[in-house]
Amino acid sequence: MPALGVWPLGLLAFGAPAFGVRACGAGEVRPVSVVRTAAGRPVVAGIVAVRPRAVAVGIGCLLLALAFGVLTVGSGDYPMSPADVLRTLAGGGGPAEDFVVRELRLPRVVTALVVGAALALAGAIFQSLVRNPLGSPDLLGFTQGAATGALLVVVAGGGSAALAGGAVLGGVVTGVVIYLLAWRGGLHGHRLVLVGIGATAVLTGVNGYLLTRGRLMEAARAMLWLTGSLDGRGWEDALPLLAATAVLVPVVLLGCARPLAITEMGDDLARGLGVRVQGLRLVLTAAAVLLASLAAAAAGPVSFVALTAPHLARRMTRTPGPNLLTAACVGAALLTGADLAAQRLFGDHQLPVGVVTGVLGGGYLVWLLAAQRKAGRI
Amino acid sequence: MTRTNAYGHLAQGDRAYGNGVAGVVTAGVADGLADGSAGGEVGDVRGDGPRLRGDALTLAYDGRVVAEGLDVSIPDRSFTVVVGPNACGKSTLLRALARTLRPSAGAVLLDGRDVTSLPARKVARTLGLLPQSSVAPDGITVAELVGRGRYPHQRLLRQWSADDERVVGESMAATGVADLAGRLVDELSGGQRQRVWIAMALAQETPLLLLDEPTTYLDIAHQIEILDLCARLHEERGRTLVAVLHDLNHAARYATHLIAMRAGRVVASGAPAEVMTAGLVEEVFGLPCRVIDDPETGTPLVVPAARRRTGEKAS
Q1: Do the chains contact at B100 and A271, CB–CB below 8 Å?
Q2: Where are the transmembrane segments (chain A) (predicted)?
């Protein structure tokens, strides 16, 4: 974790030109071709539809996430076939199955789905806001802030509800501080990145200090939380996150996605088109910080989902723009898949999901860098 | 030549000119686009003055004052070109007129109202801007990019209408990029790309359009092509265009109204034939020159003196 604060410095500074920020998309509207009518007047034909590829990827990832979820619900000390799981979910199971599915395992899967989507959405928002493919809440300090809040609660001996509250509060306070420090007559991407990297370094140090201050048992519990884990998540963890995302996601997707895509073309152009750029940045920063903090509160600072999911979404859809909705679907699939792998792949030894996402996400990033270098872009 | 603060007179003169060309809508260009007289939506409180003017503007970046007490007015239906040496504040002025830079004092008035007090989208349906540097998103097609110009006309629940589609098609036709509709913007040449950006600005359907150095980075043929396009839009659609240009001869040839700036002040404004004199060029740019008639158009042609005097004053 401490290393995380340092290595991306150069990449963040030079990431945008190196990767060539894959930017924007005012929604996925796409006039397809131009035909000329008899009068010779050109008409754009093929009613501007949503790009079919983006829809297919989104739906595909959502189905994949649900499939992973069903498999996860079916695995454990009391294994069930996917058919049994679906039957029980539809209300056709016995009392024992009902209890296992609805009370024990479903909350964990729902948490995984929503945490994955929320992290990916926060990552996609930040990557677009700072116009840098490495601008994700893990690297900009917000996740570390959430961790600091949670660790303070741990050191003070608080319970798990207090820990979640501490994480949200820590993330939000860090968000406000970074926002204010980066503000200079407006919020600018590169300042947010630099201030965020500084905050990450400071908070990583603070977190290390807090870990040494905690008693051994508490420090072990804190370490597990810091890795990111979905073990033993109940409805009390899933519901607050569900409620918050139910409010935030429509605000972001319906209210901000199109102006965000316009803003990726440059602040002046966006203002000329009637986007209130600074207001948009404030709303989106607030929404992304909240999403990342709430996700961290529910599952710990699960690494790399926020960074990787938006990239995967853009690569798969090949659609310009922040691809917010697709990124969220990809994030949900990634986290449910990683959780399934963490439970299934290592025999009796269950891993925290954060280990799997860290290894997968880090591996993906290294592969991406290697591929970009071969392509001569770095 | 008219010195500053005479914009009542200027406005009158140029409106007369504007009326002269307003009726000239040439066939062959799609005729559905809003023309200058259509007026946009802010136009309820209109006085007799020009639609767009800056009133006692003080413009500053981070407290560094670029211009102070600047008065400018853009005659309706004119093709106004702003010229001046580097760092004289001409792009800053354009940004202020386009409300992407908030003046630290004074106000930009659109139809008599302070632009900052008007709803952003409403202004965006009256006043368009093509900034100097814009980023075309990776993987975006020409038609998609032009379609983004429709943003201020769209609503959450009515995101793409037949109207939008028609305007996008016509804007692409007017700028000669209709055949490129399905191509990726990344693959185009510089001149093609600039035409696509202008098509996007056209799709915004604003009676007033501001262009910040639209010809920079283009070779001479593409520069003329873009300026011809602008002149056509001005003449055939009656749109008010304001452009910042570096080339004085282009400015003199294409502008109907010229604003010469130096060190944050408007030195002179008026018709190019009156404004563009050897004395003015020397005053504004510190460049000794002769001004002769352009053999093609009869407009002023600035020919720099062959050798600079020693000890001339810096610009």
Answers
A1: yes
A2: 54-73, 109-130, 150-180, 192-211, 238-261, 282-304, 324-342, 351-370
Chain B, nearest residue to A185 by Cα: B62
Nearest to A138 by CA among A182, A72, A204, A85: A204
Q: Does domain B1-126+206-277 have CATH number 3.40.50.300?
A: yes
Domain ranges across chain B: 1-126+206-277, 135-204
Q: For residue B103, what are its two tokens? A: 């003046």
What's the CATH fold of domain A2-18+51-373?
Answer: ABC transporter involved in vitamin B12 uptake, BtuC (1.10.3470)
**What's the CA gap between A221 and A218, in Å, rounded?**
5
Nearest to B134 among A34, A258, A266 (CB): A266
What is residue B312's predicted lDDT score, i.e. its pLDDT? 56
Q: Give the three-state DSSP class for B113.
A: strand
Least confident span in B8-17, B92-101, B241-250: B8-17
A140 vs A20: CA distance, rounded Å? 20
- Show which of residues 29-88 on chain A sit within 8 Å of chain B, judged by CB atoms: 29-34, 41-44, 47-48
**pLDDT 10s digits, B166-217:** 999 999 998 989 999 999 999 998 889 999 999 999 999 999 999 999 998 8
Domain boundaries, chain A: 2-18+51-373
Parallel, antiparallel, or unpaired: how do β-strands A29-30 and A49-50 relate? Answer: antiparallel
